[in-house]
């Protein structure tokens, strides 16, 4: 009787061990798949700008393309975009593997938002898009101000890219029971219900050609999500095609 009990206990432990081993293998395999996908995505993203650079330089060497300051500037811009892509990749890789360091300090998020808005104002002016900030009261939160600035810059860059002239963008900072809530609302092209669940995936773009032309890396929102979640916050989006989008994120205090 006793031996049977032991055997039963033993076998149930074995079953448990087997199950946890299986789920571990499953997780490892998933991690490996994610990593392989990432490498494939990166190779794909680097290919286009590199072949543009190469073709243009070869055309200059062959004398088909003038080495004018304007042509050199567009090549230079291409390398700047590549540099940004590589920097974004570094951030996303660190964040996805939980290695991103968050240096928290008590920060007035309202003042931070106002500062970012002013830094980007000329870009909005030159596209005739109105930019307003509603962040009158100080809202203190323990955040990494560089990272939160990056989040705001990414959201504002999108609001700018996906709006046409005459549009309006409003940045709001509010305080609720659990912390700070920051939102960026635009009157731009909007996002369809089918695309909405995917926009935070890395390299996902609703319209690939359009995104390329505006120099976006397709990593902006993936970085936003990672950075906000690294602060213990959450990102939300509401959007209607042709009407506009509102991205908001919370930061627990
Ligand atoms: P990208 O570099 O292409 O802008 P993001 O990760 O920042 O990459 O955004 C992913 C996609 O989500 C964009 O390609 C675009 O289709 C859509 N998107 C992001 N922000 C907005 C917005 N404010 N209005 C409309 N579409 C947006």
TrEMBL record:
Residues 1-33 form the HAMP domain. It is found in: Membrane. It catalyses: ATP + protein L-histidine = ADP + protein N-phospho-L-histidine. One of its GO terms (biological process) is cellular response to phosphate starvation. Its EC number is 2.7.13.3. Residues 41-253 form the Histidine kinase domain. One of its GO terms (molecular function) is phosphoprotein phosphatase activity. Keywords: Kinase, Membrane, Phosphoprotein, Transferase, Transmembrane, Transmembrane helix, Two-component regulatory system. Its main location: membrane. It comes from the Bacteria. GO terms for cellular component: plasma membrane. It is an enzyme of class 2 (transferase). This is histidine kinase. The chain holds residues 125 to 377 of 377 of the full protein.
């Amino acid at each position: 009787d006793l031996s049977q009990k032991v055997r039963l206990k033993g076998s149930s432990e074995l079953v448990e061990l087997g199950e946890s081993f299986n789920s571990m293998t499953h997780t490892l395999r998933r991690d490996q798949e994610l990593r392989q996908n990432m490498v494939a995505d990166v190779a794909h993203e680097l290919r286009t700008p590199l072949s543009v650079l190469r073709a243009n330089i070869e055309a200059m060497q062959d004398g088909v393309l003038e080495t004018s300051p304007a042509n050199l500037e567009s090549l230079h811009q291409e390398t700047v975009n590549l540099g940004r892509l590589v920097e974004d990749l570094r951030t996303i890789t660190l964040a996805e593997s939980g290695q991103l360091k968050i240096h928290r300090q008590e920060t007035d998020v309202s003042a931070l938002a106002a500062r970012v808005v002013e830094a980007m104002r000329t870009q909005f002016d030159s596209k005739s898009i109105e930019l307003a900030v509603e962040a009158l009261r100080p809202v203190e939160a323990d955040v990494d101000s560089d990272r939160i600035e990056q989040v705001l810059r990414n959201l504002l860059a999108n609001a700018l890219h996906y709006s046409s002239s005459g549009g309006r963008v409003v940045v709001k900072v509010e305080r609720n029971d659990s912390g700070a809530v920051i939102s960026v609302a635009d009157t731009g092209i909007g996002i369809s219900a089918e695309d909405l669940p995917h926009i935070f995936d890395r390299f996902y773009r609703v319209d690939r050609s359009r995104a390329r032309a505006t120099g976006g890396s397709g990593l902006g929102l993936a970085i936003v999500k990672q950075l906000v979640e690294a602060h213990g916050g959450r990102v939300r989006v509401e959007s209607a095609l042709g009407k506009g989008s509102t991205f908001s994120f919370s930061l627990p205090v």
